[in-house]
Amino acid sequence: MTEPSEGIPREGISPMKRSVAYLPITLFSVVMGLSGLAIAWQKCFPGSSVAHALSLSIGLFASVLFIILLGMYGWKTLRHTDEVRTELHHPVRLNFFPTISVNMLLLSVFWQSTSMLAITLWTAGMLLQLVLTIYVMSSWLNHSHFSIEHVNPSWFIPMVGNIVVPINGIFLGYEEISWFFFSVGLLFWLVLLVIVMYRLLFHEQLPLRLLPTYFILLAPPSVGFISYSGLIGGLDNGARLLYYCALFWAMLLGCNAIRFWRVPFVLSSWAFSFPLAALSIATIKMAELSQQPCLSWLARLLVILLSVIVSWLVFRTIQAAMKGKVCTPELK
């Protein structure tokens, strides 16, 4: 598998060109992690003024960062079309294009109280998610260069985006559209789960830099629980199945924490953030619906853990950017 390189600049490439032409689409996963953290603080401590201020600060930062990245990637698309085309054919980076639409959907949840902004973000995110899902799946079906070794948990991202749509779609009153996206996301999550597990169990291990993507396994059942419980307006056995599936994945990944701790920081390390945020928010909602005090405490612990991890990721990302290790050409 051809892997992105960080900090291996090619001779003859100016820093300015490298900062634009090689701006990775994977940077949008940073906004996903920050948005998830903002929503988690918003939902976990609704009566706390400190939590509200913290949530608002993180949400504002995520929103501004998203606008900046969107503008920079738009400029890259206009000025460096070949580099964008390369990412669109990359077996890993292709799956990160839907993070743009997922970010719109997450920010619409965060800005839910601002109705016009929430509707605008949700509508744009929903339409873009549909387009990108069809594009990515068409690429999978009509490929000529993918193999089983290219499959990894990041392939879930295009499907997870569909499951995010109902979270705010139900709140805004778009029930049938929400069920459509939930159905598509759930069906292809199950299909991809079989393929990804087959690859992970019976083929060579993922490259070291892709090990953090294991955490993406948490996202579909966590987000699925949030969306499904919203669609049915409560808690049933289907919702329990989704939540406890996510909780089991968290236990399994937690038992392998030392393995993940030893992975050097790379941009894919942001894969730790949003899935854990999704589990935190799912646990908050499960605690409310089931009235289990132990789940309320678990939710608080998860949000605190998430905050520590995101703080570390922000620090390491800034550190890598200052050393010129983020916007670099791909190693061939």
Automatic annotation (TrEMBL):
CDD domains noted in UniProt: TDT_SLAC1_like (cd09323)
Q: Which UniProt keywords apply?
A: Membrane, Transmembrane, Transmembrane helix
Annotated TM spans: 20-41, 53-73, 94-113, 119-141, 153-174, 180-202, 214-235, 241-258, 297-315
A Pfam family that this protein carries is SLAC1
Q: Give the principal location in a single coarse category.
A: membrane
Record membrane topology: Multi-pass membrane protein
Give the UniProt subcellular location, in the record's own words: Membrane
Q: Which domain of life is it from?
A: Bacteria
Q: What is this protein called?
A: C4-dicarboxylate ABC transporter
The record lists the organism as Photobacterium alginatilyticum
